[in-house]
Amino acid sequence: xxxxxxxxxxxxxxxxxxxxxxxxxxxxxxxxxxxxxxxxxxxxxxxxxxxxxxxxxxxxxxxxxxxxxxxxxxxxxxxxxxxxxxxxxxxxxxxxxxxxxxxxxxxxxxxxxxxxxxxxxxxxxxxxxxxxxxxxxxxxxxxxxxxxxxxxxxxxxxxxxxxxxxxxxxxxxxxxxxxxxxxxxxxxxxxxxxxxxxxxxxxxxxxxxxxxxxxxxxxxxxxxxxxxxxxxxxxxxxxxxxxxxxxxxxxxxxxxxxxxxxxxxxxxxxxxxxxxxxxxxxxxxxxxx
Length: 289
Prior knowledge:
Layout: E1 5-7, E2 13-15, H1 17-33, E3 40-46, H2 50-66, E4 69-75, H3 81-92, E5 99-102, H4 112-118, H5 130-137, H6 146-157, E6 166-170, H7 177-186, E7 190-194, H8 201-205, E8 210-213, E9 231-234, E10 238-240, E11 243-245, H9 250-253, E12 259-260, H10 267-286
Parallel strand pairs: 2-12, 3-4, 3-5, 6-7, 6-8, 8-9, 9-12
Antiparallel strand pairs: 1-2, 10-11
Helix pairs in contact: 1-10, 6-7, 6-10
């Protein structure tokens, strides 16, 4: 894939997630044109969380661009968990639906993990089913979580060598921190996980050739915490009075880093692009391509 990088006045390379995502969508669209069937993606959304509704709408637009069939199954907040799982099971059985995602968050009355694990592993477009996470753990990557997949793609785009590098993941969530660390480990990096109980966080991050910040703590990572020339991936996003703020103090860290992702416009667009790529892979596998 072409490298989408910008340069600031001191030569630090800004990794353009929007451009990478655009190139991925364009390539998927090209591949879909050659198929004799239409990949299908279904989204199950319970409740009316405003951010989720916007995100689902954007997913639908992405599907339209790449010529996927897409469906959004919106269910009221009071829908029983059993009914949600029944809907997912019905989608599991449909031949025209190749990928399914359960939009999070779900209402407190519903066990989100149970809903995700109701999705058949071969249709799990988000890569969050326990079977797919288990395959990731034992280095048999099949469908992997979208945000970590996008992070790996951005790191690879810089030309930085993952194998043998020291990678530090600040954050240990099941959605980003843990899986991206496993993906880096599977690519032969030496991986260190840091979190709220980590002692001497600064000394850990200062040794990172690859630094992934995914904790949702605005401007946590400052210039003095970054190894000169490191690849810095900012996953966190917080809404502040000034706009969207990442976990990395971008203005100071860009003076030190070799490569850095902005917020917004870095990891976020890649998450949506990886969902499309996952869905295409699932569709091809189900059709024996």
